[in-house]
From TrEMBL:
Source species: Pseudonocardia xinjiangensis
One term of GO molecular function: hydrolase activity
Transmembrane segments: none
Keywords: Hydrolase
Domain KANL3/Tex30 alpha/beta hydrolase-like: 24-163
Name of the protein in question: Alpha/beta hydrolase
Length: 204
């Protein structure tokens, strides 16, 4: 089910995939800067979450809906994301997990506290621009105060974060696309969801 959601920066688009059986939470997933919600790692993660008893909402930022390839500034991305969060929370009164790949993972981290996320799932978090390790975004990754999972390619030119208190990091073979080890990606996501959120009460 795909619908548009009004945000301060134009309409966003959401595609909802319902859990198999009773849902215990909702996972919102955002796309990367230059890609869409059809990225293989996003689809693999969505399928894994649905099978684990979560509704999944794939979120397309307004700039993508408008047909622009260049991403909007961070403040606009965050504001649009939070507008979607409020829409989803009104429709599905369940615990919310935030997630996304690359730029979408940054948005999820930056908004986790304000948006009331219970966990954050980062696919290919871009620690720094390729070849620019001095421009790191680790403060964004450290911002959430809830459990965080980072799934990263071992040869990702955007860097590899280290584990930290509350942050698990799973390294898979391959690069920033996370296409090389889909079974490993699914296993990492399933294990994390089960270990941290398996006790959430399903909706009745």
């Amino acid at each position: 089910m795909t619908t548009e959601v009004a945000t301060p920066h134009g309409p966003a688009r959401i595609t909802r995939h319902d859990a198999e059986g009773e849902a215990r939470a909702v996972l919102l997933l955002g796309h990367g800067a230059g890609g869409g919600v059809g990225a293989p790692d996003l689809l693999a993660t969505a399928g894994t979450a649905v099978a684990a008893g979560l509704h999944v909402v794939l979120v397309e930022q307004p700039y993508r809906v408008a047909g622009r390839r260049a991403p909007a500034p961070a403040a606009q991305l965050d504001a649009a994301w939070l507008a979607v969060v409020e829409h989803v929370r009104a429709e599905l009164p369940l615990p919310l997990l935030f997630g996304g790949r690359s730029s979408g993972a940054r948005v999820a981290c930056r908004t986790a506290t304000e948006g009331g996320a219970v966990g954050v799932l980062c696919l290919a978090f871009p620690v720094h621009p390729p070849g620019r390790p001095e421009k790191d975004r680790l403060p964004e990754l450290a911002a959430p105060t809830v459990p965080v999972l980072v799934v990263q390619g071992r040869t990702d030119p955007f860097g590899r974060p280290e584990p930290a208190p509350g942050r698990e990091v799973v390294l898979l073979r391959g690069d920033h696309s996370l296409k090389s080890d889909t079974p490993g990606l699914r296993a990492a996501v399933a294990d994390w969801l089960t270990s941290h959120f398996g006790a959430l009460t399903p909706a009745r």
